Amino acid sequence: MYGTSNGFSGRARPGASSFIDVATEYSLSRKLVLAIDVTHHHAWDTRVTGSAPADQAAAGPVSVRFQSGTSDAVGLAPAVEYSWSGNAGVLLGTRIIVAGRNTAASVTPAVAVNLVY
């Protein structure tokens, strides 16, 4: 984990993180709603320290110390919500993460069934 080799012995200290989500909805009718979320996630460094088994060239355990670097991700999550009654509905959408610092771009579909009793 955290980019270490087999036999690593040590500690990983994940940094703090923050997440901001701003959402809005627009009702086209009593049953049909357009929605979108705009998100930002920031994570500070993860610090890893410890030792790893020696390779053939080294005589003893090798000291390991590194930082992952911070990461940032900006995302959009557009969706359509349809409610066939006041107690039941479905949401169809997708989450799009734009490539950021130490973050890969991704697209993830989303389906949710909402039931309220």
Question: Your description of this structure?
Answer:
This protein is mostly beta strands. Helix content is 0%, strand content 63%. It contains no helices and 8 strands. The chain has strands at 9-13, 17-27, 32-43, 47-52, 62-67, 71-83, 88-98, 106-115. The strands form 2 sheets. The chain has a 5-stranded antiparallel β-sheet, with no helix packed on it. Strand 7 (88-98) and strand 8 form a beta hairpin. The relative contact order is 0.21. The model has no long low-confidence stretch (mean pLDDT 89).
What portion of residues belong to β-strands?
over 45%
Envelope shape: elongated
- Helix content range of the residues, please? under 10%
Sheet with most strands: strand arrangement: 2-3-6-7-8
Question: Radius of gyration, rounded?
Answer: 22 Å
Average pLDDT level: 89
Outline:
By secondary structure, this protein is an all-beta fold. The protein is built from no helices and eight strands. Strands 2-3-6-7-8 form a five-stranded antiparallel β-sheet, with no helix packed on it.
SSE map:
Layout: E1 9-13, E2 17-27, E3 32-43, E4 47-52, E5 62-67, E6 71-83, E7 88-98, E8 106-115
Antiparallel strand pairs: 1-4, 2-3, 3-6, 4-5, 6-7, 7-8
What are the key terms here?
117 residues; mainly beta; 3-stranded antiparallel β-sheet; 0% helix; 63% strand
